[in-house]
């Protein structure tokens, strides 16, 4: 066992040599930021001020040459080889959130368009799942490896959970959802997980950048803002390929009912009948704003989009600490992470 001390909080925990530093932190109740836990998203980066770490395989793709030069490590993949002195901001908002495993029942299976299904899951009895709008959970089924899906509804009734599942070509689990999953099926879930959630200690305007079913967790956050009667100015940019890929009309309803919510749909492959914005969704945001000095940006969707959005936003004068993201990684077609 090694001692890991966080310079930022002054708190320490014990971490075994056979577990990742992030697992050690979470096991000990530390609220470190993290996302995919697969080494892709980079949400759990920390500075190693002193001590040695190692990865089981090659250095993860999310760690750049610049990161290595600055002694930055990916805590979800690295393991301690000595006592560690690190620097990472802990998330106070997660202090009372407990990751739990529990059964749930499929209440509804709704096909929203040609490749997106809405799942409504019900947690039986008096149990509930405490979570923050924007977080995700893992679905467990005996015939498949666990799959990660974002929760798409605000935590008002935490007995009911909404998920948006996109059909992945060759994906075993999403094909099961589309073709075989029925109401009243019993599944297990584990969660909530992730550090993609609203930072509600700010009143600055927010830009949401959603790609495809990346709209799901952003939907949950906007619903949460509406329930809070928030007056923060919101700009929602939702990018898909063609008009048929939009699967809910809610953004239009929000913008009609709430003066502070603005919706901009963006198509990357529009046909001649489309009169709206076209191109890559993050580039549309950059063209609409002179700079992002006073904004917060929340981006969710495919990793290529999230990475490009982060680069463009920071180049457009967004403070790095005001960019929050959740990228939907696909390690291979059999994992279906959404």
Give a written overview of the molecule:
With 338 residues, the chain is of the alpha/beta class. It contains seven helices and 19 strands. The strands form four sheets. Strands 11-10-13-8-9-12 form a six-stranded antiparallel sheet, covered by helices on one side. It has a six-stranded parallel sheet with strand order 17-16-15-14-18-19, sandwiched between helices. A hairpin with a 2-residue loop joins strand 10 and strand 11 (144-150). Helix 6 (281-288) packs parallel to helix 7. The radius of gyration is 20 Å and the shape is globular. It starts with a strand and ends in an 11-residue tail after the last strand. Mean pLDDT is 91; it is low at 330-338.
Quick take:
This protein is of the alpha/beta class and 338 residues long. It is 18% helix and 32% strand. The strands form four sheets. It has a six-stranded antiparallel beta sheet with strand order 11-10-13-8-9-12, with helices on one face. Strands 17-16-15-14-18-19 form a six-stranded parallel beta sheet, with helices on both faces. A five-stranded mixed beta sheet has the order 2-1-7-3-5.
Number of strands: 19
- Strand order in the sheet with the most strands: 11-10-13-8-9-12
Helix/strand order, N-terminal first: EEHEEHEEEEEEEEHEEHEHEEHEHE
* Global geometry: globular
Mean of residue pLDDT values: 91
Measure the end-to-end span: 34 Å
| Estimated structural class | alpha/beta
Number of helices: 7
Strand content is 25-35%
User: What is the share of helical residues?
Assistant: 10-25%
Q: Which residues sit in consecutive blocks of at least 5 with pLDDT less than 50?
A: 330-338
What oligomerization state is this entry in? single chain
Major β-sheet profile: 6 strands, antiparallel
Using only C-alpha atoms, the radius of gyration works out to 20 Å
């Amino acid at each position: 066992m090694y001692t890991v001390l966080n310079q930022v909080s002054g708190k320490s925990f014990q971490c075994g040599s056979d577990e990742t530093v992030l697992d050690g932190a979470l096991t000990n109740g530390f609220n470190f930021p993290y996302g995919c836990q697969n080494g892709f998203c980079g949400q759990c980066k920390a500075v190693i001020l002193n001590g040695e770490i190692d990865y089981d395989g090659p250095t993860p793709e999310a760690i750049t040459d610049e990161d290595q030069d600055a002694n930055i490590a990916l805590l979800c993949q690295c393991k301690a080889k000595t006592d560690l002195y690190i620097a990472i901001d802990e998330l106070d908002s997660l202090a009372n959130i407990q990751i739990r495993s529990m059964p749930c029942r499929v209440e509804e299976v709704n096909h929203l368009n040609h490749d997106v299904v809405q799942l409504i899951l019900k947690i039986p009895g008096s149990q509930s799942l405490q979570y923050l709008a924007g977080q995700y959970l893992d679905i467990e089924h005996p015939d498949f490896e666990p799959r990660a899906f974002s929760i798409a509804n605000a935590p008002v009734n935490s007995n009911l959970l909404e998920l948006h599942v996109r059909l992945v070509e060759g994906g075993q689990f999403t094909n099961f959802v589309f073709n075989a999953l029925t109401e009243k099926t019993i599944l297990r879930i584990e969660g909530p997980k992730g550090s993609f959630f609203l930072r509600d200690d700010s009143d600055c305007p927010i830009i949401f950048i959603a790609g495809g079913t990346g709209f799901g967790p952003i939907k949950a956050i906007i619903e949460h803002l509406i329930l809070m009667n928030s007056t923060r100015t919101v700009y929602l940019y939702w990018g898909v390929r063609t008009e048929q890929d939009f699967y809910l009309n809610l953004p239009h309803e929000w913008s009609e009912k709430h003066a502070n919510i603005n919706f901009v749909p963006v198509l990357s492959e529009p046909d001649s009948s489309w009169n709206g914005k076209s191109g890559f969704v993050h580039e549309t945001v950059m063209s609409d704003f002179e700079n992002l000095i006073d904004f917060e940006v929340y981006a969710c969707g495919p990793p290529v989009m999230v990475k490009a959005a982060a680069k463009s936003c920071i180049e457009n004068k967004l403070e790095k600490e005001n960019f929050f993201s959740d990228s939907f990684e696909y390690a291979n077609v059999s994992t279906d992470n959404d």
